[in-house]
């Protein structure tokens, strides 16, 4: 077996490689501990309809409250579990946590759907919809329509049949899907048409520079045009300024998420944030004051 691997054989017995594997192993073990010790938490970022100012949903974003290193962003720890079974474990934990939070907020009169990010590995697991059904059954007070799953187009491209099957089954349970980071993968009209997707999220990398970079503006324009032709709602990520918001609305993109509206926040902070967010009337007079 080792012989067949040819050149890899060398690396296989390389002491540095051993050490690397050891480090990876320890990192993963540490992550399992974090899950068990409740060091992971979800932050929530509001999504707003820019026409009315209404908050239409929340995206759940994972954080690791590390006892020594402080609050870690997903980019600092998700890569260590990439394509391992831990991704499935984390994914189920996040869904469960979101369903718990939905129950709590529902009791407080806050009825906003939560979007959960699903990794490509997790989406393609064969019993995905069955497990989702079980998780939903544990939280009978939450209407499945309050849960949305954000998937990357690359996940669907990897195995379109499996993705299509899992997504259709989840949709039958009442759960809907959003395509995340749209424009960064190998997007094609065909896939958009095939997949049961009710929201298209334009990637923040295009939004960020759209006002200064003609190419990025062209991409944003095309995505909005396409999504409108397909009659799919779309949301712009990374909306940081009023200028961005205005330009996006002028192009026909009405939903937005970004630091210009709110940064991701712990669940406990949301009720106060919502109470301070302008009402519909206040929004309209703000819009008149800032044409
Ligand atoms: P994403 O799903 O595209 O999430 C949007 C990211 O953009 C978040 O970063 C958010 O904090 C950040 N963001 C929001 N508004 C702005 C803005 O105006 N400007 C800038 N510069 N950034 C903004 P975050 O929380 O670090 O998450 C990064 C990525 O990690 C997410 O990208 C998602 O792919 C992944 N991720 C987060 N939570 C989970 C999770 O629970 N499960 C899985 N599988 N992946 C997750
Ligand atoms: Mg997302
Ligand atoms: Mg995104
Ligand atoms: Mg992203």
Automatic annotation (TrEMBL):
Annotated signal sequence range: none
Domain EAL per the UniProt entry, residue ranges: 24-278
Superkingdom of source: Bacteria
Protein name listed in UniProt: Diguanylate cyclase
Entire-sequence positions represented here: 299 to 589 of 589
